[in-house]
Amino acid sequence: MTDPVFFAPAGRLALAEVARIAGGEVVRGDEDVAIGRVAPLDQAGPGDLSFLDNPHYIAAFRETRASVVICSAAHAADAPEGAAVVVTQQPYRAMALIMQALFPDAFRLKGPFGEPGVSPAASVHPTARLEDGVTVEPGAVIGAGAEIGAGTVVSANAVVGRGVRFGRDGYIGAGVTLQYALIGNRVIIHPGARIGQDGFGFAMGPRGHLKVPQIGRVVIQDDVEIGANVTIDRGSNRDTVIGEGTKIDNGVQIGHNVEIGRHCVLVAQVGISGSTQLEDFVAIGGHTGLAGHIRVGMGAQISGGAMVKDSIPAGARYVGSPAKPIREWTREQMALKRAAQATGRDET
């Protein structure tokens, strides 16, 4: 079996160029040094670039064989002899910028078929409007009246429904379905996501549950990234909204009428019930559930595995099930620990 490299570097970067892209300063190293790969500290070798962001890996940092390392000023003295050192305030962010430059194909995704243009094996309705430079792969379906902006890739077997609007320089992964949605520029949607299907709305009663028509839309603003197998229901009588720059991990469920602000982060398996509102810069850990009709204030953080049934104020940090402020939760845990220890002493 062959061993393909799916993301080959676009070229080599000289040390000065690494520092420029990283927004850092060369504090040690030969200007003739260049890198062509990126590798973890423990696997890096000559010609490789690596970095230290978490002090947990300081031992590996001191032993790495990378030709160039990126770190903060606090750890520059720990860099191994022989390695060129670039100092920056945010090593992880610097590494991301360098990887974008070195591996553009991993930053601007291509579909699984890998060829530009509109495939003759795709089904594009004659009333659909595609700007120049749109790629539509085999098996993809573009519905009546849909509009797709220049530079967007529609991967194999994706479905862009009737009347959907999708902006420029975006990516629609394999098997994605989009319905009743307005989507901005530079939006990335990973394989298997389902966007714009019916919200879960029923008028419940003793003779059965009457379906409530879902007549809203999904509105996704610019620079949003949506993970694999995410589901985002369209609104029932208003729009479901995902704000600019928000990042949604794999396997997240977002109910109808939910409004998510700008630059929020939702980690895997978060579930948000209908009509809940998240203000800007909210961060929610994995496997967290939010009840419906509540509000999470700007900059609030919710720990993974929490169950949230009430609104949370701006800037708060909540944890637990049911979720509560972290200080309150910590006091309760300490009290339980003391009570358990006292019980143990009494039993002896």
UniProtKB/TrEMBL annotation:
Enzyme class: transferase
Enzyme Commission number(s) from the entry: 2.3.1.191
GO biological process: lipid A biosynthetic process
UniProt-listed Pfam families: Hexapep (PF00132), LpxD (PF04613)
Domain named UDP-3-O-[3-hydroxymyristoyl] glucosamine N-acyltransferase non-repeat region: residues: 32-100
Domain of life, per lineage: Bacteria
Repeat listed as a keyword: yes
Gene Ontology molecular function: N-acyltransferase activity; UDP-3-O-[(3R)-3-hydroxyacyl]-glucosamine N-acyltransferase activity
TM segment ranges: none
GO cellular component assignments: membrane
Keywords linked to the UniProt accession: Acyltransferase, Lipid A biosynthesis, Lipid biosynthesis, Lipid metabolism, Repeat, Transferase
Positions of the catalytic residues: H256 (proton acceptor)
Pathway: Bacterial outer membrane biogenesis; LPS lipid A biosynthesis
Catalytic activity as recorded in UniProt: a UDP-3-O-[(3R)-3-hydroxyacyl]-alpha-D-glucosamine + a (3R)-hydroxyacyl-[ACP] = a UDP-2-N,3-O-bis[(3R)-3-hydroxyacyl]-alpha-D-glucosamine + holo-[ACP] + H(+)
Function summary: Catalyzes the N-acylation of UDP-3-O-acylglucosamine using 3-hydroxyacyl-ACP as the acyl donor. Is involved in the biosynthesis of lipid A, a phosphorylated glycolipid that anchors the lipopolysaccharide to the outer membrane of the cell.
Self-association and partners: Homotrimer.
PANTHER family noted in UniProt: UDP-3-O-ACYLGLUCOSAMINE N-ACYLTRANSFERASE (PTHR43378), UDP-3-O-ACYLGLUCOSAMINE N-ACYLTRANSFERASE 1, MITOCHONDRIAL-RELATED (PTHR43378:SF2)
Family: Belongs to the transferase hexapeptide repeat family. LpxD subfamily.
Protein name: UDP-3-O-acylglucosamine N-acyltransferase
Organism name: Pleomorphomonas diazotrophica
Gene behind the chain: lpxD
